[in-house]
Amino acid sequence: LFISVTQVSLYDERPFEYEFFLRIQISFPFMKELTIKNQKAQKYKQFIKSNNNNQILSIIEYFNLTRLDFTKTHDDYLELFLFDMNMSLPNNLHLLVDYASLERVTYYFTRYIARNNCIKLAALYCDPVKQIDEHIKNYFPYTCIRRTYEYHFIRDKSSHTCSYRYISATT
Predict the structure, then answer these.
(1) For residue 125, with 0-12 CB atoms within 10 Å meaning exposed, 13-18 middle and 19 or more buried, which class applies?
(2) Quick one: how far is CA 18 from the chain centroid?
(3) Predicted confidence (pLDDT) at residue 55 exceeds the cutoff of 90
(4) What is the pLDDT of residue 168?
(5) What residue ranges do the domains of the chain occupy?
C-alpha cells in the first residue's frame, strides 16, 4: 500500500486492462487525482462485458478521487470509468475529457449506463464545446461545464465552486 500517494499518472504504449485499475484501487487507497494517457484500445474489453452479465468482476471504487484526466485517452478508458457496471465514482468529481470522446462513449448523451456516474460530476472540463444543448444539461444536471484550459486556472485557486453552471458557446 502507498498511503501517502495522492496523484497517479499512467502513461504507456500498451493497453491498461480492468485488472490493472483494480490493483490501482488497492495500492493507492488515498489517490485523489488520476491521469491516464493511453491511445491503445483495451484487449480484453469484450471479456469484461460478457462477465458483467454474470457479475464475476468487482466494481472498482476510488473513494477519495477528486479529479480524472482523460484528455489524451482512448474511449475504452472513459467507458470503463463512466459505466456503473465497472466503476462507482465518488460525488464531486472533476473530469477532464475530449468532448468528441465523451459524445461517442455516451452515444450523444443518451446511454443510460453512464448516467449514474455522470450525475456525480461536480465539474466537466472539455474541448471543444460547440454548444451546450438541453440533452447535455439533462445528462449532467449538477455539473459545471467548462473548457479544459479553465481547469488549470481554477486548480490554483482554493475554491472549486462554479459561479455559472454552463459555459456559453461564445465564451
Answers:
(1) buried
(2) 15
(3) no
(4) 37
(5) 7-155
Question: Under a CB-based contact definition with an 8 Å cutoff, are residues 35 and 8 in contact?
Answer: yes
pTM of the model: 0.84
Q: Which amino acid is at 26?
A: I
Environment class of residue 62 by beta-carbon count within 10 Å: exposed (0-12), middle (13-18) or buried (19+)?
buried
At 68, the amino acid letter reads: L
Residue from 35, 24, 27 nearest 66 by CA:
35
Report yes or no: 24 and 17 within 8 Å, Cβ to Cβ.
Answer: no
Q: Do 116 and 83 contact (CB within 8 A), yes or no?
A: no
Specify whether the CB–CB gap between 1 and 29 falls below 8 A.
yes
As given in the structure block, the three cell numbers for residue 78 are 472513459
DSSP 8-class letter at 110: T
